[in-house]
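fold-stage: in
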Amino acid sequence: MNQPTSPITPDSLTPGCRVRITKQIARQGTALTNSVEGTVVKAEQRKTGSWFAHSKDDRLWLDRLEITKDDGEVYICNVDSQTVIEVIPSEGTDDAA
């Protein structure tokens, strides 16, 4: 079975679920790491203005995740291979019965 090319799937990142996004940016032998938590507003692929042959509409498409942080700030993240997305279980779900 083929692996999905997109880390964003409708089953895993539905609106309303809580996530932690960790991005790494490589630079001169080290990496900058930034994490942010919030509630998913939408997960989608959106086309850019960049041209890319043999792609849908001949444009470059990027995975984008929009979340709302606890303070109300809207955060839009382009998801790439260096992005880690963790779904945070809601506090109401307890596996110990």
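fold-stage: in (second)
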Amino acid sequence: MKFSVFADLHHYPGVFMGGTDEDMTFIQQRAKAENCSFIIHAGDFSHGPSHIKEYLARYNDFEIPSYHCLGNHDSDSTSYAETLQLYNMPDGHYFFDCEGYRFIICDPNYYKLDEEYIHYDLGNYYKHGKYRDFMPPEQLAWLRETIDTAPGSCILISHESFERADGVQNRQEVLDIINEANRKKPHSVLMCINGHHHRDFIRILDNVCYFDLNSASYDWVSIPHDKYPAELCQKISLLANTVVYNDPIHAIITLEGTTITIDGMESSMFMGINREHTENPIYDGAGRPVTPTVQSAKITLG
């Protein structure tokens, strides 16, 4: 079976450059041409779906089933409860089965304060940096049961990473659940896909494919630069804090037994500006550079 996945579209007109109508059309038409069973994103589709209802309807109502996964920014300016409603999500975490595989959408968008797990809601997490990116115990229990009762192999999709050291803070508990399930029944979990970090990286860990999926739009740079025209920066308020991709890079993934085929795509940097042209480090905290690519690979898990 085949599906389309993208991450970090960041549709936010006047603030970010990517996530345009043309980008959405490109992703959807590629999925249609490839006969994908569904489309899903790995979070940060927008910064408040209540403000982009027409654009959101283009995604929700597309002829191919289209699913959401919450990112840390999706409920920045729309409440968590309303975001779930507008994204047609039964909860922040849920699953669906498709052609013998189970797709499990996880939700690590909680901060932990005084032993209480609080979901991101209207930007409440910004002031709790070191306490962010947790999966609560109840969701971990749900994840274990959801994997155990799956009709076939599982694909986990989350915004923050279960593989990166700077990803989900209690990721080891998630990895323990995955590895325990695979010991009991090999290939219970084939793959984990995440967004958030705006990097292109694949790692095979304990016979599971971990896919750090690049942003479809840009990379964030904390130190603003002056490489883009001033008049363009006046129209797009946070453009100087980004280096932008020219195309909505994403992946088409084909599953056949325990073989995973990732058909990525290559783009280029807008105006040729990359991180090395700014005062920002070339590599992120995991040692991964920014590239305007989603790599292609064919992996058979042994």
